[in-house]
Amino acid sequence: MDQTHTDVPHRGLITLSVMLATIMQVLDTTIANVALPSMVGDLGASADTINWVLTSYIVAAAIMTPVTGWLADRIGRKELFIVSVVGFVAASMLCGISWSLESMVLFRLLQGVFGAAIVPLSQTFLLDINPRERHGQAMALWGAGIMVGPIIGPTLGGWLTESFNWRWVFFINLPIGIIAVLGCAAYLPSIARRLRGFDFFGFAMLSLGVGALQLMLDRGGEVDWFASVEIWIELGLAITGFWVFIIHLLTAKDPFIDPKIFLDRNFATGLVFIFVIGVILLASLALLPPMLTHLFNYPTITTGLVMAPRGVGTMISMLIVGRLVRVVDARFLVVTGLLLTAQSLYTMAGFTPQMDSYLIISSGVVQGLGLGLVFVPLSTVAFATLEARYRTDATSLFSLVRNIGSSIGISVVTVMLTRNAQINHAELSAAITPFNPNLLATSPAAAAGDPAALAQLDGLVNAQALMISYVDDFKLMMLVTLCAIPLALLLRKPRLAPAGAPAAHMD
Predict the structure, then answer these.
(1) Which domain range does residue 94 map to?
(2) How many domains does the chain have?
(3) What span, in angstroms and rounded, lies between the C-alpha atoms of 29 and 16?
(4) pTM, rounded to two decimals
(5) d(Cα 132, Cα 144) in Å, to the nearest integer?
(6) Angle between the 101-115 and 77-96 helix axes, to the nearest 10 degrees?
(7) CB count in 10 Å sphere of residue 218
(8) Do 124 and 170 fall into the same domain?
(9) Under a CB-based contact definition with an 8 Å cutoff, are residues 155 and 301 in contact?
(10) CA 205 to each of CA 121, 238, 242: distance values in angstroms, whole numbers, following the listed order
């Protein structure tokens, strides 16, 4: 049945219920990372194999995300959302009682399968229940959960692991999930189902491409990338899957995803932008905790406290921009956000091992402000000119591209960090010889070959080489951010419906 935005009851309770489920799912992408060392002994795993706990979840979620639109049409959005949340919580409980690595990987696979639909459906619901002129505020709230979740995840995971047990990283989902399910069951409106055929071949090819790519990106660092046959096989499967899917998309009579969705310029440009946001957001989050731990010797809780202001900056930015997007050109907000993000990365490119936490906090706040200014207008404008019937497919693609961007960003900066650290160490060490007058002046014992002095000197060289590598990564992300600015010119300013007018229908 058709239902306009003006007669959607309990909008606030729907929003609360949907966002609780969303935050729960997003938290699980990072909350388990810090608990991995504690899992090793309990699950009988090794330091290498324990990473499958993360890999299984990422790959399963990536494969199942694109099918969200079809499933929502087939069984109903409300029904799919409730099933997803219940399944996710049940899988979380099973993860918490895992007795071996194999059982944990299996339950994490289930967690990824059920959790994949939560984020795209939550975005669809918030767009559906709000009139066009309030989409900016709705996307500000949704974006706050999406972007702040990964930031607080490691801190919360570290606290739960240290204070209780690593199993509580999963058990914490139970109370949140129960509240979310009860709220959704009571207040989410039922929407008419739309039967459409399932393009199994298209889904299989897209799943092959996405699954192989995610597996390659996640496993590459462990098996030395292209020195491994496994990576070449995964690359070949990824290229084959995507290539066949694209050909099938353009030639099939009833493809898995309607190609007309990509003809909307705002949506197509939005996909490119959200890819860049995925690279910057999670790549910087992947770099900072190990940097603070290894170079600055911060404990887990302190690392979380130092990074928390980044989330505060994001929240402030989104609260402001949710209202600004109605009166200020979204393209101007996006460009301003990218410039602020680039400025923060420029500041981070000046980090040194001797600095205090002020620069880390201030650059984090600026980056949070910048990413918030980009994310909200982008999430609003990307769907502003898109037909409502494409919305669920579009939100699933939006989430998929953001996740792929995050995986690629993390892989690239991690590879660069490792390789550059080796190169920098070799270059710095080459200048340390007994004939160097600076060495003779600063450490005569090292120049004389004293083992203790040489070990101390090697530690300093390692720290400087690693710091230079982090700086190089921050510079790369700054250039990526600046290169994305011209894309804002491709966005079109949507015409907002008059206040109170139903801009679209919940179909």
Answers:
(1) 1-198
(2) 3
(3) 21
(4) 0.78
(5) 19
(6) 160
(7) 21
(8) yes
(9) yes
(10) 23, 9, 7
| Per-residue pLDDT tens listing for the chain (507 residues) | 344 444 667 778 888 888 889 888 888 877 777 777 778 777 877 766 777 787 788 888 888 888 888 888 888 888 899 999 999 999 999 998 988 888 888 999 999 899 888 988 888 888 888 887 777 778 878 877 777 777 777 778 878 877 888 888 899 899 999 999 998 888 887 776 666 677 788 888 888 888 888 888 878 877 878 888 989 999 999 999 999 989 988 887 877 788 888 888 888 888 888 888 788 777 777 788 788 878 888 876 777 788 778 878 888 888 788 778 778 888 888 889 889 999 999 999 988 888 888 888 999 899 888 888 888 888 778 887 888 778 888 888 888 888 888 888 888 888 888 888 888 888 887 777 776 676 666 767 666 666 777 777 777 888 888 899 999 999 998 998 898 888 887 777 665 444 333 333 333
In a domain, 132, yes or no: yes
Helix ranges, 252-390 (H): 265-294, 300-324, 330-348, 358-381
Residue 272 in any domain: the answer is yes
Which residues, at least 6 apart from 324, have a Cβ–Cβ distance to it below 8 Å?
Answer: 136, 333
Given the structure tokens 């120049």, which residue do they identify?
A: 447
Distance CA 186, CA 208 (A): 38
Evaluate the CA torsion angle 48, 51, 52, 53 in order and state its sign. positive
CA distances from 223 to 40, 132, 430 (A): 20, 48, 29
Task: Please answer whether residues 290 and 307 qualify as being in contact, where contact means their C-beta atoms are separated by less than 8 angstroms.
Answer: no
Instruction: Say if residue 170 is in the same domain as residue 249.
Output: no
Helices (H), 350-390: 358-381
Exposed (0-12), middle (13-18) or buried (19+): which is 74, by Cβ within 10 Å? middle
Q: How far apart are CA 389 and CA 72, in angstroms?
A: 12
Q: What is the DSSP letter of 312?
A: H
Q: What's the CA gap between 475 and 469, in Å, rounded?
A: 10
Q: Are residues 185 and 300 in the same domain?
A: no
